[in-house]
Amino acid sequence: MSRSANLELALYAAGVAIAQVRAGRSLSDALADLEPGAGLRAAVQDLAYGTLRNLGLLDALLAELLRKPVKPALHALLLCALYQLRARPRSGHTTVDQTVRAVSRLEPAAKGLANAVLRNYLRQTDALVARCNSEAAHYSYPQWWIERVRAAWPQRWESVLNAGNLHPPMTLRVNRRRLTAEQYLAKLGERGLAGELVGAQAILLERPLPIEALPGFAAGEVSVQDAGAQLAAPLLDVRPGMRVLDACAAPGGKAGHILELADCALTALDSDPARLPRIGDNLARLGYSARVVCGDCLSPEGWFDGELFERILLDAPCTASGVVKRHPDIKWLRRESDIARLAAIQGRMLDALWQQLAPGGKLLYATCSVFPQENAQTIASFLARTNAALRLPLAELDAGQLLPDARHDGFFYALLEKH
Question: By the 8 A CB rule, do 365 and 416 touch?
């Protein structure tokens, strides 16, 4: 199959995925259902992720180019084509030709429309882009999201938004029970691979690699985990022999890190039975074991044995606004009302898990959000209604918030001690 024919199929498949995201489905689920064929998956992912990262501008451009609305599937395919034209302008005529062929698979009567729209874009690119001057188009976020970030981080709001549109780095966590980070860097160097230390056990790779190309991955020497996420386990301050609960554990990355740092009695809890096997698989690869339980931390009667925990990690469900560089669909699937809804759930989880924490124990609250209502405000509300709780300082973080940048995602941490 020729490269141009591959582009036709990739555009078609990416358009299908984008249409599903616009209808409310996650990109990962939409892509999982596609079978683009050998050699095409990477191209489809590149088109889909790139389109969603730039969706604000692409939507505005297409609105300028269309005289009347088109069906959602065709709209999504044209968005992917515009992204391809912007990402690879030198291949413009090939992109137009292959888009028209892809449209013929979807809606044959619209081939002429697609051809006219894309050729008009090529003729008027600079003028069209100049007319798309709204903030939503410039930053490629919903306007409410832009306003929330600007209000929360008035000195850094643009860098936060821009970070979310970057390609995510690939960062490794070295299992310190097996070898040091410096020793693993040497292993990479022996294979002609490069990386740099960005944390105690974190190595930022010079370029992403398939996990099967990572030396020692199958043997549990290393895991893939964002540098910001790697802060959680050390902050929890687990000691050997402690009873520890990872309350929202799937897929098991932080659970594995906890066991790498201390030989403890870990319970890995998650409410989604479909995700539990991933916890077991991750721990087995590392060579560790834990009590893996399906249960809801808001309903402890179904899983809690009555013996209190000395450490609890609550990696709470949140808007995931700090990890949009990895999941650009989040920008377009979230609604502003989700923030308050999730903050309420987070508060109930804190209240419930506090009852399972032993006196003198510590609970680490974590989110991958940049919105204060889910973070500092949730913790402030909890402290106001909980007399026995004390928030401990975290020297590594300014008020607990790690804002996203080119090297890591965005996270929030608050360490609470029970008196």
Answer: yes
Residue among 220, 202, 292, 295 at smallest CA distance from 255? 292
Does residue 380 carry a pLDDT above 80?
Answer: yes
Looking at residue 1, what is its pLDDT?
Answer: 40
Residue 167 has pLDDT above 80, yes or no: yes
- The confidence score (pLDDT) of residue 135 equals 98
Cα angle: 194, vertex 197, 203; to 5 degrees = 65
Structure tokens given for 366: 């974590």
User: Is 291 inside a domain boundary?
Assistant: yes
List alpha helices for 246-336, DSSP H.
253-261, 276-286, 330-333
pTM of the predicted structure, to 2 decimals: 0.95
Q: Nearest CA to 142 among 317, 336, 323, 370?
A: 336
User: Within 10 Å of residue 17's Cβ, how many Cβ atoms?
Assistant: 29
- The tens digit of pLDDT for each residue in 117-134 reads 999 999 999 999 999 999
Please confirm, yes or no, whether 368 is among the known catalytic residues. yes
Helices (H) and strands (E) in the chain, counts: 17, 12
| 205 and 258 housed in the same domain | no
User: Which token pair is 271?
Assistant: 């409410």
Longest dimension (CA), the chain: 71
**Per residue in 314-323, pLDDT tens?**
999 999 999 9
Instruction: Tell me what the pLDDT averaged over the chain comes to.
Output: 96
Catalytic residue among 264, 297, 318, 368, which?
Answer: 368
Strand 411-418 with 389-392, pairing: antiparallel
Average pLDDT of the residues in 146-174:
98
Compute the chain's Rg from CA coordinates. 23
- Res. 38: pLDDT tops 70: no
Q: How far is CA 321 from CA 43, 86, 145, 163, 243, in A?
A: 26, 26, 9, 11, 31
- Secondary structure (3-state) at 279: helix
CATH of the domain at 134: 1.10.940.10
Rounded CA-CA distance 401/330 in Å is 20
Q: What is the DSSP string of 170-203?
A: -EEEE-TTT--HHHHHHHHHHTT--EEE-SSSEE
Q: What is the mean pLDDT of residues 364-391?
A: 98
**Helix-helix angle 376-385:337-354, to 10 degrees:** 40
**Domain count along the chain:** 3
Residue among 299, 302, 295, 254 at smallest CA distance from 271: 295
Whether residue 313 is contained in a domain is answered as: yes
Residues 194 and 255 reside in one and the same domain: no
